[in-house]
Amino acid sequence: MAVTGRPTLRDLFDESPTPHIAHPPRTHHRHFYVATDGSYRPNGGGLGVVIETRDGERVARIAFQDVAPNNNISEYRALHLGLDVLAHRAPPGARVGVLVDHDDLAANVNNAVLAGDHPDWKSPKRIVVPAGSEHHWRGIQARIAGFGEVRAARIDSRENPAHPLANSPREYEHVNRKPDRCVLPEPLGLESDNDVSYLPPSRCEGHASDD
Q1: How many alpha carbons fall within 13 Å on the CB side of residue 190?
Q2: Which residue, 7, 18, 97, 133, is the most exposed by fewest CB within 10 angstroms?
């Protein structure tokens, strides 16, 4: 069930800029939205992930303690984690909206998407990845290629629901103990949604929850 009293990830995505890539009116036809955030502190930080369907149904919420060398690496780690989790929940061909509060990361994701559509794999803008984030960027690129469509939006950290999870992972560690869920958006009756109206048994068995 969608949580009342706060905007859904879809609402946040539709109202936010998507650097270097068009923001078409069909954004609500995206199947899943993933918001991520990474926090850095000298004595430790955290990674936060929130995943919802376009209907506002929560798929996953994660808060991990993490020690990263700097904030840039923590942001890339968080998105890598979020896309990995979503890849195990979403069927092939899913259209995904990414929400991050890191300008360069959002731009890099969209440039990577555009490069994937180019016959020579050329990005319209030069992609610069922070030192130490190369491994996570390769993982992010692999996940982007595995979804049907990806677009990243840049949101304010004050609106990012993953922000408190990343900044207070100990306070929110209870969210990690909740069972995995197999949640899919309600079909729109469009032909393009036929391939995401179900999950194969291997992804659903033992993961359903009424939570």
Answers
A1: 11
A2: 7
pTM over 0.85, yes/no = no
Measure the CA–CA gap between 113 and 95, rounded to whole angstroms.
12
Q: What is the pLDDT of residues 94-135, one digit of tens each?
A: 999 999 999 999 999 999 999 877 666 676 678 999 999 999
- Chain-centre distance of CA 156, in angstroms? 15
- Residue 151's nearest CA partner among 37, 20, 38, 60 is 20
Contacts with 200 (C-beta within 8 Å, 6 or more apart), sequence order: 91
Q: What are phi and psi of 144, to 5 degrees?
A: -55, -45
* 37-90 tens-digit pLDDT: 999 988 779 999 999 999 899 999 999 999 889 999 999 999 999 999 999 988
Tally of domains in the chain: 1
End-to-end CA distance of the chain: 9
Range of the domain at 89: 9-18+26-175
Question: With 0-12 CB in 10 A as exposed, 13-18 as middle and 19+ as buried, what is 177?
Answer: exposed
Q: Distance of alpha carbon 102 from its chain centroid, rounded?
A: 13
In angstroms, rounded to a whole number, what is the distance separating the alpha carbons of residues 120 and 103?
26
